[in-house]
């Protein structure tokens, strides 16, 4: 192999691919990155049997070839090289990178035991990567930890992505909270589909692909999910267990006993302040309503704290309910303006939605929070 390629592009691709490789792979070759020429480009690939990355970069290909090299070394070395074009020459024993005044030589790895990379399915549509990334990262925070998602709960460890018409929904739940983001989606045809991908893997992928349109593949019963940006394609194994049917767990606003509307940021800050005097992370804070305000209180014997937030309320005077501050705060975090919360009883979940400038609840984000039973 003999190519000339831009240092910044190669370093960025090597860094992104290396981050997805295991730190201590069971097989040394799984810590490697595969460089392969094709036409006027070079593809940089990594695979650990769970996630694969492929970055296709423009290059002057002088001699074709394929070589496997340590991902950590390639990422470190290319990042340290001077900006501008660099020459990459490789044979069966070593890979040499050269720039004016700088040369690195890295040993190659045997490709004999390197696994075959999965084939990325055809894309089903496109979504804005700058909208997808924060939605998936936020949803991943509400998924169930892997160590808890065993047996028939395995579906809760993933983030569910589903396309329907011109919208994409991103959902997750740990049974104590539910989040659902709704994003604009441009389908390739009339096909709908869904994917359930381990939360941490999908969040990392979407952060990598932010900044460009993202093409997503829905392939029915296939066990591989594929997301692609301008130059990077990432595949991940999907969760085998179906995502739970959470639609019925969203409370019906028409059945609520009352609701409150206030500034979402002010409510979030009040929740954070109340949690400061709690002894334990899971200890509840309380929301108490009356006289056009909500009082958010925390603490136990000795240390206590409370903040009052002005709120428009309906049929909530004297109502008190408790919630884990970390859960409630995480559900309020994406809301930058007004928020509306519907309550039924202190022991039933609440529905949380943003409110537009006209005072109407929007459908681009919905969340559910389970209460904590107060003593």
Question: Please, could you describe this protein's structure?
Answer:
By secondary structure, this protein is of the alpha+beta class. It has three domains: 2-109, Roll (DNA Polymerase III, Chain A, domain 2); 125-247, DNA Polymerase III, subunit A, domain 2 (DNA Polymerase III, Chain A, domain 2); 250-369, DNA Polymerase III, subunit A, domain 2 (DNA Polymerase III, Chain A, domain 2), CATH 3.10.150.10. It has helices spanning 7-19, 71-80, 129-141, 199-209, 264-275, 325-332, and strands at 2-6, 32-38, 41-47, 51-58, 60-63, 66-70, 85-90, 94-99, 102-109, 125-128, 158-164, 167-173, 177-184, 186-187, 193-198, 213-217, 224-228, 232-237, 258-263, 285-290, 293-299, 304-310, 312-314, 320-323, 338-343, 350-355, 365-369. The protein has a 14-stranded antiparallel sheet. Helix 3 packs antiparallel against helix 4. The longest helix is centred in the first third of the chain and has 13 residues, at 7-19. This is DNA polymerase III subunit beta.
